[in-house]
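ERR on first pass: missing label on line 2. Operator R.T. fixed the label and resubmitted. Corrected input:
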Amino acid sequence: MQKFLCLQRSLPGAERQAEKPSPAQMQAMYAQFNEWREKFQKNLVDLGGRLGTGRVALPKPAPDGPLVEVKELVGGYMIVAATSLDEAIQIASECPGLLRPGSGVEVIEIHTPG
Amino acid sequence: MTELGEHFFRHEYGRLVAILSRRVGVHHLDAVEDAVQYALLMAVERWPRDAAPENPSAWLFRVAHNRLVGELRRRARHAAVAEQHSLGVPDAIDEVPAAFLAGDVRDDLLRMLFVCCDDAIPAESQLVLALKTLCGFDVREIAERLFVTEANVYKRLERARSRLSELGLERSELTPNHLASRLPAVQAILYLLFTEGYLSSHADGAIRRELCEEATRLTHVLAEHHVSATPETFALLALMHLHSARMTARQDASGGLLLLEEQDRSLWNQREIHEGMSWLARSADGDVFSRYHAEAGIAAEHCLAPSFAETRWDRIVDCYALLERLAPSPLHTLNRSVAMAEWRGPADGLAVLEGLEPPTWLAGSYLWSAVLADLHRRCGHIELARRHTDAALDGAPSDAVRRTLERRLAR
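pass 2 clean. output:
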């Protein structure tokens, strides 16, 4: 199986969801996440995590032009194994909370030599 | 992986808010709630990845505690800079407990319940505060359960919070005197919480049951602590169990309400009846007879009757008469007339209501009209019966109630 890098991306222009989940909703999220993990046990190579602040290191002299901070675009990452890009997208899409208003996922094939 | 209980997150929320607000003072309630919210979110994020910790409660406590200490330090620094003051972080939060003290939890829950029932807080705000802090419901969920708007819930919470933040400055601990004088208010709020669930016309049975279970859970905390283990508390607990026993049987398969005489008594929960009866026995201690005793007595008669016809209506009439004296309400009189009609016939039932001038809220309600319609019909007063039947059907709060009335009053 091939590996795919999944990046959670905030969609440009979307309002950040201000509403906090209630304890009962959190319990439901917890159960859904466990179910999803169970279902795709074989595919989940690395559940990854949230991404915090980052900085871009540049060759000197730095080129002109805008450089965006990493965290503004990517909220978290994980690595899944799948037989095709479509399957990888399917797995990522079913992850609870990943696809919601204001957030999407970018799935990128990882080429490994050999 | 550790299996979490059905309401683990909600109950942890209540537990942690109670423990932490005791440590830092209830005037920091907002910071406490934020820290607990944060800890639960961390759990949702981390546990499925790394497997839940062996002691989830202790894990949550540690995360919430650290978050709270950090936030209060930050606030204290702010205040210090602003006022050129020395750093004044409350001492209590520096005492991080070496081990997790489970024994304190019940005390803390109980204490929080008494904090919610400060007599300077209006009862409707007390109820909302208890639902939020002790039961872990959020504003939207409370609004849904109490049939009020979210704005209304916010308003009630604000009133409670502003009172608590005043209290915080005094940093007063609750004294045994406080506890004794507030106990009736605490009982009243738990009773209210229970009836909100039991009498609710909410379509979702699970939601109604949930409120009843929360009320029963907290009343158990009350009954198991020496400051609040009084005959009234036991009677209140008895009445909750005895009502809960019949809860499932009150609905037919499609969610419609069933009359007492239509209910399948084999569906009544014997374990609940048993538990209710043993609390009722414990409540018969000393010479106290409260409204909870009267109500539990009525519920017990219904639970123990082998059939509708064999119900000891005379005792139920007596209990309602006592209830009218202890907690005067024309609603109790109305109930007594119903029981009287079963005991001595519809004419005697009507006689109970003679001379009673119902207040507008009752006169305009479907209950009042339905009882009158039923009694007049059984007495053969066709015209009166029809008039009251129409009024009852017009005033029915839900389709389930309307269908029940049609069935009953059409005969």
